[in-house]
Amino acid sequence: MSRILVQPIGQKRLTNVAVVRLKKHGMRFEIACYKNKALSWRSGVEKDLDEVLQSQTVYSNVSKGILAKSKDLITAFESDDQTKICLEILEKGELQIAGKERESQLSSQFRDIATIVMQKTYNHETQRPYTISMIERLMREIHFAVDPNSSSKKQALEVIHELQKQFPIKRSPMRLRLTVPEQGCSSLIEKLNAWSAKIASKDQSGSQLYIICELDPGFYRDCEALMSTLQGRFEVLALSVHAGGDNHVDHYDDDHEDQPPRVPKETIDSEAKLREKLEKQNASTSSATTIEEGKQNKCGTCNTFVGDAKQFREHFKSEWHKHNLKRKTRNLPPLTEEECTADMEVGDTKADLKEYSF
C-alpha cells in the first residue's frame, strides 16, 4: 500500500529567500536565491551557480510560486533556456531584501560615508579635524539620504560639497614635494598662489627648485598637468593633512588611488634647514654624522629620528609609537623604546592581576 505525503494547505513556499527581480518588455521575472549569495556572486567571490540559486527556475512571482510562461521568456529573452535567463537576471536584476536588512545595510553605508568625510575634512575655524559623531550629526542636519546604488566614496565627496555651504568645513590639503627647473620657478609660484596653496618650505639647489606645499585636492590634476608642462616632477607626501597631531595618508581618497604608499605627516623641512638645525644642537658631533642625521625623518610623538621612508612607516606601526600616542592624548611626555617596553610590561602585569582577582 503506497503512502502519500500530504503537505499543509496553508504553507507559503519560497518566502524565506532573497529575490532578484528584472522587468523586461513590460513583464516581471524573478529568481529565488540564497541570502547573501547574490551579492557574493556579483562581487566575484562565489563562482558556483548552484550555491546561489535555490532552483534554476524563472518565476513571475516567487512569493506566490507562479512560474513564468515559456512564451513570455521567448518574447523577453529570445530563449527559454532557464539557466541562461537566470544568469541574466542575476547579473542585471534588482535584489529585493527585507526591511531590516535594508535598514542595516543603509546604516552601515552611512557610517562608512561619515568616516570618509571625517578623514578628508577639518574645521577651518578651529584648525582641528571633526569627530565621526560630529560628521554624522551634520549629515543628518542637511537631511542626507544614502543611495545604495552609488559608491560610498562618491557620496562622501557630494556630502563635503553640501556641508561646505552651511558649516565651517574644508577639504584637508595634500602635502606635495615639487621639483622644477629654475626657469619654471615663477610660473609655479604664480599658480600656487592662485590655488591658495600653503608653501611649507622652499629650497634651491643648483638649477633645481624644491618646494614642499599643502594644496587643496581639487587642484591635484591641474598641478599634475602643470608639472608635466614645466618638465618637473612631484611626490605626494601625504594625501590628507590635518592641523595638529600625527596624520596618515587617507585610505579612501578615490581621486588618487594610484599614488605612492602613505607617509606620515611629520613636519618635513628641506634637507638644508634640517641639517643646519642639527648642527646647532650637536655642535660636538662630527660633520659627517650631522649630515647623515639630516637625511633622517623625525617622529614628533616619540621625539626620535628614524631612518629612511620604509623604516619611518614601520616605526608608525610599532607598539612603541602607539604607546606614546596614548600618552600624548593624556599630555604625558614620550618614553624611549626601553622605557616603553618596561611600561607596557607593568601594564600587562596589572591587567593580569585584575583579571584573575576575585
TrEMBL record:
<dbReference type="InterPro" id="IPR036786">
    <property type="entry name" value="Ribosome_mat_SBDS_N_sf"/>
</dbReference>
<protein>
    <recommendedName>
        <fullName>Ribosome maturation protein SBDS</fullName>
    </recommendedName>
</protein>
<dbReference type="InterPro" id="IPR039100">
    <property type="entry name" value="Sdo1/SBDS-like"/>
</dbReference>
<dbReference type="GO" id="GO:0042256">
    <property type="term" value="P:cytosolic ribosome assembly"/>
</dbReference>
<dbReference type="InterPro" id="IPR019783">
    <property type="entry name" value="SDO1/SBDS_N"/>
</dbReference>
<dbReference type="Pfam" id="PF09377">
    <property type="entry name" value="SBDS_domain_II"/>
</dbReference>
<dbReference type="InterPro" id="IPR018978">
    <property type="entry name" value="SDO1/SBDS_central"/>
</dbReference>
<dbReference type="InterPro" id="IPR018023">
    <property type="entry name" value="Ribosome_mat_SBDS_CS"/>
</dbReference>
<feature type="domain" description="Ribosome maturation protein SDO1/SBDS C-terminal">
    <location>
        <begin position="174"/>
        <end position="238"/>
    </location>
</feature>
<dbReference type="GO" id="GO:0005634">
    <property type="term" value="C:nucleus"/>
</dbReference>
<dbReference type="Pfam" id="PF20268">
    <property type="entry name" value="SBDS_C"/>
</dbReference>
<keyword id="KW-0963">Cytoplasm</keyword>
<feature type="domain" description="Ribosome maturation protein SDO1/SBDS N-terminal">
    <location>
        <begin position="16"/>
        <end position="102"/>
    </location>
</feature>
<comment type="subunit">
    <text>Associates with the 60S ribosomal subunit.</text>
</comment>
<dbReference type="InterPro" id="IPR037188">
    <property type="entry name" value="Sdo1/SBDS_central_sf"/>
</dbReference>
<comment type="similarity">
    <text>Belongs to the SDO1/SBDS family.</text>
</comment>
<feature type="domain" description="Ribosome maturation protein SDO1/SBDS central">
    <location>
        <begin position="111"/>
        <end position="171"/>
    </location>
</feature>
<keyword id="KW-0690">Ribosome biogenesis</keyword>
<dbReference type="InterPro" id="IPR002140">
    <property type="entry name" value="Sdo1/SBDS"/>
</dbReference>
<dbReference type="InterPro" id="IPR046928">
    <property type="entry name" value="SDO1/SBDS_C"/>
</dbReference>
<dbReference type="InterPro" id="IPR036236">
    <property type="entry name" value="Znf_C2H2_sf"/>
</dbReference>
<dbReference type="GO" id="GO:0005737">
    <property type="term" value="C:cytoplasm"/>
</dbReference>
<dbReference type="Pfam" id="PF01172">
    <property type="entry name" value="SBDS_N"/>
</dbReference>
<keyword id="KW-0539">Nucleus</keyword>
